[in-house]
Amino acid sequence: MIDSEFVIRDSIFEHEMFESHKSGNSSFGLEHIRRVEATWAFDASQIVSMLKQMESEGLVASPTTPDYWCATYKGLIERERRWQKRGFRHPSLDPGATDPRDVVIALLRSSGYELELGSNTLSLSEYQVGVYIWHLDKFALDTVIERLIDDGLIKRDRHIFNRDLIMVTLTADGLRYYAHTVVPRLGLRPPATILAAATPERLPFEELGLDPTLADNLRFRWEEATRCSEARAWLAATALYGSILEVVLPDWLGRHKERAMAAAAAPRDRRDSSKIFPLEKWSTSDLIKVAAELGFIDFALTRHAHALRESRNMIHPDRQLRERANPDADLTLISRQVVLAVLAALARATP
What we know:
Layout: H1 3-13, E1 28-29, H2 30-33, H3 44-56, E2 60-61, E3 68-71, H4 73-85, H5 100-110, E4 123-125, H6 126-132, H7 138-150, E5 154-158, E6 166-170, H8 172-186, H9 212-230, H10 234-254, H11 257-262, E7 268-269, E8 272-276, H12 284-293, H13 299-312, H14 317-323, H15 329-349
Antiparallel strand pairs: 1-3, 2-3, 4-6, 5-6, 7-8
C-alpha cells in the first residue's frame, strides 16, 4: 500500500467505530464517516474506495445495509496496531514491553479512554482487552485474567445494561494497586491513561536557570530514580529523589545569599549567635526552613519536604535499622510528588 493510501486509511481509523469501548453493532454511512476532520483532505470517492478495500481485507463489514459500515474485530486490532506503531499509545502496550498483568490493570483503569474519568467505570469486556493486547492469544490472555482474579485485583461482572455481556472490572484493591504500583512501574502520568500517547515528562530543571552541568546531573538523578522504581528498588529511588533537593536548594539559596543569611531560620553557631554558618555547611533541614521563610516554597509543603529528607536518610544502614523502616512503592511515589512540587514552586519563583 502506498503512503497516500495509508493516510486515507488512518483518517478512517479515527472514526468512532474503531474505538473498541464504543464498538457494537452500529453501522455508519459515508456522511457520518466524513464528519471526521482527518477525512476532509479527501473527496468522497477516495473514502468509499478505501472503505471497499478495507472491506475486502475484513477490516470493515456491511452486515445489514449496503454502503453502511462497521468495524470488525480484525479491523479494531489493525487500527490498534497502527496506533501503537504511530506512537499514539503508551509504549508499555508494545508487545513484550512489560508484564501483561500490569497492562490489563492499566487498561481497565482507562475504561477505553485516554484520560481517567473517575472511579465509577473501571471495566472493559475481555473482547475489548484482547483488542489492545492483540499480540496475546486467547489462552494467554485468559491465563493473565484468571491470575489477576485469584489475586483479588479484578473480577468478572455482567454489564449493567446488557446482562449477557461479561465485563472485567477492577476491584478496590486493584485500583489501589494501579495507583501505587502500576503507575510508577509503567511510567504513566495520570490523569493520562495507558491509551494516551506518552509525552516526555516535563521537568522544570531548565526553568530554574541552573548551570547546564548541574541541570544534567539533576536529570540523571531523576531518570536513575525512575529506573530504580521500575526495578522496585524503593530505597534507592527514595534516596535519589531526596538527593535532588540537596542539590537544588543550596544552588537556589546561593542566588539569594544575602536574604538567606539574614533569615531567622539561618543556622547559627551555638557559642556565638551572631555568627551564621556558611551556606555550604547548612543541613538539608536548614535549607528547607529558610526556603520556606523566604517564600520560595509554601509552608504546607515544608512538612512533606522534611519527611522526604528523613526518608532519604534511610540510605544509612544504622538509621534504617534503628527505625525499622522499609520504603515501598507508596513512599517512593510520595517522594516523587514532593520533589515535583518543590521544583514547581521554585520554577514559579524564578524571575
